[in-house]
Amino acid sequence: QATRYEAEGSGATCTGTVDTNHSGYSGTGFCNGGNTDSAFAEFTVNASAAGTATLSLRYANGGTTDRPGDLIVNGTRVETTAFAPTGAWNTWTDRTVTVQLRAGANTVRWDPTTAGGLPNLDYLDVTPAD
Ligand code: GCU
Ligand code: CA
Predict the structure, then answer these.
(1) Domain total for the chain?
(2) What CATH number is associated with residue 76?
(3) Which atom of ligand 1 is nearest to 119's Cα?
(4) Best probe residue, ligand 1, of 19, 66, 89 (max atoms within 8 Å of C-beta)
């Protein structure tokens, strides 16, 4: 069963603005990170036990080029997520990654690696393995 962390919610840090001008988002808006390599997004994810979990980050990239970002879990880089174009800012898709979490609070962060910054982010769903 997934726990949802909205990118505009209290359990997240959005380095940018919370916007509502592109439809299809969950919650009260989405995170529009600044177009700079310093505009990270971070989620505080609670896990009841240590172990494997599936992260599913919903994003939209209406631009024409990738918006790559390093996925960093508890300070350790897991991958560089490409965030390929989705065709429109109101076309949302999911990037799913399996990670290891510790019991209690975890930090899940995407750090853009280029000056374009991140795509728009809607939410992070976290599903622990059975
Ligand atoms: C447009 C779009 C924003 C998006 C931005 C970007 O301004 O409306 O939602 O964040 O492009 O290129 O990052
Ligand atoms: Ca943006």
Answers:
(1) 1
(2) 2.60.120.260
(3) 13
(4) 89
